[in-house]
Design a protein that fits this description.
6 strands
Length: 136
């Protein structure tokens, strides 16, 4: 079974009911990935989520922590030194932001076939990995 990796923005939209259609799309995507047991993310995504949830969404620390705990059964990539070096190469080669390069590397290292994000170009391919924007 091929993993599907989600970027931080998907988790944020899934929590933010004020985002209209994006909220429901994100909720449905996260639920499908959980139900099919194919969800993947990284420690970076979890850290970014916690920061945005407690600051932007004004969730309590406990609420944000509960969501993070709920994601413990997902495949979680923990970047190593080699992953940082690989992300640097991706950043240079594709002229990505640093954080997007780290997300991209984590998705690749997770063996994901899809990276769900609105921050990269929909349909762009990086080897076997395809970027999908769920909101287009």
């Amino acid at each position: 079974m091929n993993a599907e990796f989600i970027d931080t923005n998907i988790l944020i939209y899934a929590e933010d009911s004020g985002m209209g259609a994006k909220h429901q799309i994100a909720v449905d995507l996260v639920a499908r990935l959980a139900r099919q047991d194919i969800g993947a993310l990284s420690t970076q995504v979890l850290a970014e989520y916690y920061n945005a949830a407690t600051k932007k969404l004004r969730m309590s620390s406990e609420e944000a922590e509960e969501t993070i705990r709920d994601l413990s059964c997902w495949k979680i990539h923990r970047p190593s030194h080699a992953d940082i070096v690989n992300a640097i190469a991706l950043q240079r080669r594709y002229r990505l932001s640093w954080w997007d390069a780290m997300i991209l590397n984590s998705a690749i290292e997770s063996g994901a076939g899809i990276l769900w994000s609105e921050d990269l170009s929909n349909g762009q391919e990086f080897g076997a990995l395809v970027i999908r924007n769920p909101f287009v």
